[in-house]
């Protein structure tokens, strides 16, 4: 299983065939993992990926499973399992 590689930041276009865009607005996007990519934090397969350029983010609901966080210079990534 390949992991998301954040060594040079994160560009969703590098994974466009493996992630499905669910929602996007000016500073964030939500994606589904449709190819079994591994989490950059723990290595396990993740279900959903939230990517944000915003300084602050509020979530209305909590996922049922574990949450991992990963950070690049420009983005915060929240991965749910």
Automatic annotation (TrEMBL):
Keywords: Cell projection, Cilium, Flagellum. This is Flagella cluster protein. It comes from Halobaculum lipolyticum.
